[in-house]
Queue: 2 jobs
Job 1
Amino acid sequence: MKKILLIEDDLSYSRIIKNFLERNGYNVETADSVKNGLLEGKKEGVNLIITDFRLPDGTGLELLAQFKAFNKKLPVILITNYSDIGIAVKSMKMGAAEYITKPINPDELLLTVKEALEEEQIEKEQSKKAFGEENYIVGNSSDAQQIEKHIQLVAPTDLSVIILGETGTGKEYISKRIHQFSNRNQGPFVAVDCGTLSKDLAGSELFGHVKGAFTGANETTTGHFEAANGGTIFLDEVGNLDYESQIKLLRALEEKKIRKIGSTQEISIDVRILAATNENLQEQVKLGLFREDLYYRLNEFSIKALPLRKRKDDLMLFAEQFLLESCEKLNKEAKEFSKEVANKFLKYEWPGNLREMRNIVRRATLLENSNQITLGVLPDEITNKRSTGSSHQTVKALRQDEEKNVIQEILLANQYNKSKTAEQLGIDRKTLYNKMRKYGL
Ligand SMILES: Nc1ncnc2c1ncn2[C@@H]1O[C@H](COP(=O)(O)OP(=O)(O)OP(=O)(O)O)[C@@H](O)[C@H]1O
């Protein structure tokens, strides 16, 4: 049975989530602070961490950073408030498996947990074989067609490719597509998140080590390069590699040989390298933080993944694909977007790009009961419903606090059964959902 550690300081809420996950076949331990979370999470046998963002002695992001330094393969799901998209985006950059927003929707939670654990399994088995098209959308706009042309052009060559773009713009998807259309597509595709490689262990993660190479090296390991032999290695957030690892990487690329840490034996490798960054790598080269020779070696060809706000022509195509996928995955009847929603989508900035859109559409699919996605199930960021400062603010805030407490109490008493809660409050389910979202319940 998979073991989940849930870190949440609201104990009644924590109990409800724990019960729900246990009913669905998981073993759940709980902790109520950063300190206790770290203690519990580092114990043997934990497969997944779910942590709230706001904790009494710190934040979920601090925990995420610590867990990623401790074991970067341990998946971490961050719970944020519905409107904290900035934190959610940051968490993904820091290596979170996924984020979910409050109020937690049970189906969404279960799906996210399942997906995070599946990914953990794949990592473990290192079964990086060829994969299907993964619902890859090319897009109809001329920019999208240009990117696709470049992918098809460069894929069959062995050139190193650097993929530039903001977080969530599809850099990893592009690199998988390059692998898929390359002659190496029967070989492994190994994705390495350089942002989560600690300085001390980067060398051994990338190239492996022999038993006894350093304290704690109890057995000989295979590094990512060796695992990718005959295939493609994808170095995500390559700008985060420390200087020492950059030197080793350059050597591996130039000599096509690696040496495990602590070994004198050289191993020949045949690996194609794709790298991604959402930083200005050239700027880092200028500042002396990234080696110029490595930069040119990685940048034999470059592809720019566009931010979603600059892809207005294809934006609804993505939204509709995510809606279709969500309906299928969640066993919901087919739905469409209302005109108002489409308008808001086109005006929104999408700081988290395609990943944010996929998550918002998935959540809207869960919340919407009709066959049309309406404004009511979108976050305030998109609908601009956020209240602006006014003289009534304090009185209003007080009333809202009261209302929030009452709703929370009744929800808890009903074990988060929304129909019962709405009935007891004398409001309909939709109003309840809106209020829950408003108050982050
Ligand atoms: N071409 C595409 N077609 C369909 N969905 C896509 C496409 N590109 C990206 N996505 C969706 O967006 C999500 C994020 O994409 P991906 O992980 O490739 O982004 P990224 O730029 O590598 O993100 P990060 O900067 O956080 O590493 C994917 O999980 C997928 O759901």
Job 2
Amino acid sequence: MAIQTNNAWPAFPGDEQVEIASLDTVDFGRLLIRDPAEIKKLLDVCMTHGFFYLDLQTCKEGLQIIDDEQSVYRFMEEYFAKSLEIKMLDDRKSFLHGFKPIGVFTGTKESHKDAYETLKVKFTIETWNLPEIHSNMRQVAREEMDAKSELLPDSVKAKIELFDRFMGLSNLVNSTLLMCLSDALGLTGSARLEESHRRDQKSNTCLVMLHYPPTDADSANIGHNKHTDIGSITLLFSEQWGLQVFDPETQAWKFIQPRPHGHATINVGDSLRFLSEKKLYSCLHRVIPPTSDVQTEDRYSIAYFLRPENAAVLEDADGKSVAASKWHDDKYVMFGAPHEEQDKATILTGGMETILGRA
Ligand SMILES: O=C(O)CCC(=O)C(=O)O
Ligand SMILES: [Fe+2]
């Protein structure tokens, strides 16, 4: 469906008419109270598209995330405006911690590198997973542990209360989705999805803040290459255009319209697809400059990646058993490989290109 992008809000940067994906909206407040109809809707969208909007305006926890989302954007604007030299002090050479400069991974176009920088946050202990701890004590525990952490950037330490709350609530959203999906799939006992995302086990769950600065048409860096997400559920926020999803029906990329001030975008990742005996749909997506190869505005996005415990065993697209942590590490290595190598294996797109057609 071609949409008049000049009527869209937020405004589409540019005069071009582009295809926009029509995504369903799931109500988070209804999921929190385990509304059966909403749970069924959640399962349906995860089995058909694997990408949907989550309305966060219908409960107090959701409203708090929407508020905090704005504070995280303000933090990001300030952080990414620093010089590269300063930001590199936070480079931890890690997929889970600290700063990543532009150009580490492969871009959307042949022989181009990526056009985004990131700041990743993972706390030493995930205290929000311990509901029995009173929130004040939780805060103290967080501050004491992470004040000493060499992995956590100082600018994050300075906003620890904001990140603690935002990541705790993001975790609540993603684990609620996981529980509802287990219910909807009729899973019981050790087969429930929560059982491979246990609170006291090590995982690669983390928060990633992404910044796509303006670029020229002749830049050697472009976009965020096509991929499926590594983990189970991604909670994503952005106020700017650029995210696209591959539509198998038309075999074309479609833009996802940002819906700021109330909605998150959710997508299913490879691990959840593999854990659900491939019943759930891990969708193929990418980020490109909305105006023909030129990124005219700064784009900021916030992704909270829920991933299974490191030791969980997945059956990948080729039917091979792989530990969740190995799938994570191998996929990150593949993000940096040239297109030719990426196209030879199923890892970059979690085997979804076999199902969807080649993007
Ligand atoms: O920046 C975005 O909107 C999406 C980023 C993304 O797909 C990812 O980091 O996995
Ligand atoms: Fe992604």
